[in-house]
Amino acid sequence: MLRSMFVTTVAASCVVALAAALSGCGQLTPTYLKPLSPQTRAMLAEKGMSEQSPVLIRIFKAESELEVWKAKDDGRFYHFKTYPICSYSGGLGPKVQQGDRQAPEGFYLVSLDQMNPRSKYHLSFDVGFPNAYDRAYGRTGQNIMVHGDCTSAGCYAMTDAVVEEIFTLAREALQGGQPSFQIQAFPFRMTTDNLAAHKDDKWYDFWKNLKEGYDYFEISHLPPKVAVCEKRYLVNVAFTGNARPSPTGACPAYQRLPVPRAPAMQEASA
Prior knowledge:
By secondary structure, the chain is an alpha+beta fold. About 25% of the residues lie in helices and about 20% in strands. It has six helices and 14 strands.
């Protein structure tokens, strides 16, 4: 439904823009259709990235940071830019139920139909909560977004200017052919030391599981392939006979795949 609205809105806006051009009335471009700024385009070019290349987003609650990564010609993702999260509600730990005002943690996918150009919070996209892992635990909630307006009730809220740039980067990637982009939402940067500092937390085992995906990306700079069985994430595995795992059932036989180590990166991710 959202995809249909987005496409219909874009088409309608094109008609308005054409009419404006013909009439010379100077109609302003809607926010969700604005191009990237010249400065952002220059930064992409400087880093060897294109506007329509695939994106990946990482979120770190404790640091209040959202990272955008872009793919280059070698297929690997490179850090593009880090944005400050203006506000998120709740504390460290996953979202459990509707109304707990907690921002989620985990691995999520965003496709074009999750982009919301008419959000009451300026612009937004749905992160995809609950995913298969969340549903395995009976977690509830809906409309969990990255959005503007700098106010949150379970979402990740940015300033309007920041969400415009992130929204446009995501829009260009999806319209450029990326079927969906991955969001990795973490409680903090998942270093060994940071995790050890939380060894007595009730979510420690959950965070250890998240760290598997974090480590895979840190080593490979490729989105981790994530499956769910036995109510846990499995990262970078191949199931025997192409079996389809059940999020709540026993894991089918599988083997862990080798991690394709990335070449030495010239830029830090922070």
